Amino acid sequence: MNLVLQGPDASPDNLARIAALAAPARIVELGERAIRCEGVDYSLELKQAVELAAHTQRMDATFIEAGRRLKDFGLVAMDMDSTLITIECIDEIADMQGLKPQVAEITEAAMRGELDFSDSLKRRVALLEGLDAGALGRVYDERLQISMGGEAMLDAVKAAGLKTLLVSGGFTFFTERLQKRLGLDVVHANVLEIVDGKLTGRVVGGIVDAEEKKRTVERVCAELGISAKQAIVMGDGANDLKMMGVAGLSVAFRAKPVVYQQASVALNFSGLDGLLNILAE
Predict the structure, then answer these.
(1) Residues with Cβ within 8 Å of residue 54, at least 6 apart in sequence
(2) Which residues are responsible for catalysis (predicted)?
(3) Is-catalytic flag, 81?
């Protein structure tokens, strides 16, 4: 196995100290704040010890099979809210209605897997009834930011020939704008109903829940002529688990515990571009 150690605050001393726990056959520098330890004799005990030590230094420790590279994949599929972008759009829309605490509480419970996603989305959207649709533009312009390393990650995966998919339980208002802004190949999300310039509190058509996210990843892979095992899927919430489960590599980004525990790899401190070190040549 290889062990990739990285973090925005990683120092050479701390990297070396944690690497020593793994007793690697050799160490490859991946940049100022990242190294790859090769020829590691993997065990669950070692994984737990290294991850604990790394966490205390705000570093990510990723064990991965030797030889896995970005070029082995054909698609990067991403969740939107709290993954590709830093916010939960529906919470920020609700803030325009003075209802952010109530909506955010439901969002958090749904992302932890404590509530059915479809039901929770309907409940949250219903609270937005009567809100001027201009609030959506304000959220996009004033509050939406790309997560750390997101643009660098996308530039690299596109340069490597991979296609990109943004699949979200959020809303097309945001995914379509991000598609144009970031040059994404495919986007899929929920449609908010707007009548006479106001939100009706309803979603048009089917809801993009966990099952629909999985189906979308599988459909896009089929259209590309690749297996779902050639997809990298990145997410943070319980509704991402099904699509992460069919992927060849699942990446938990700033994820809820239920997701962190089931993902192939996790980025708790590094940006989205931490993926590039994990799959570096």
Answers:
(1) 5, 7, 18, 60, 61
(2) 79, 81
(3) yes
Q: Which pTM value belongs to this model?
A: 0.94
Reading the block at residue 265, the tokens are 């790899």
Summarize pLDDT for 91-106 with one digit per residue, the tens: 999 998 899 999 999 9
What is each CA distance from 128 to 34, 93, 117, in whole angstroms?
44, 8, 17
**How large is the C-alpha radius of gyration of the chain?**
19
For tokens 């003075």, what's the residue? 98
Name the active-site residue from 81, 91, 236, 240: 81
pLDDT tens for residues 52-96?
A: 999 999 999 999 999 999 999 999 999 999 999 999 999 999 998
Among the listed residues 9, 72, 79, 91, the single catalytic one is 79
CB atoms within 10 A of CB 28: 14
Q: Which residues of 165-187 are buried (b: 16+ CB within 10 A; e: fewer)?
A: bbbbbbbbbbbebbbeebebebb
Among 67, 84, 111, the domain-final residue is 67
162 in Cβ contact with 173 (< 8 Å): no
Using an 8 Å Cβ cutoff, are 89 and 190 in contact?
no
φ, ψ for residue 174 (rounded to 5)? Answer: -90, -40
Range of the domain at 20: 1-67
CATH of the domain at 177: 3.40.50.1000
Same-domain pairing of 24 and 101? no
* Three-state secondary-structure class, residue 83: coil
Helix, strand, coil share of the chain (percent; to 5): 45, 25, 30
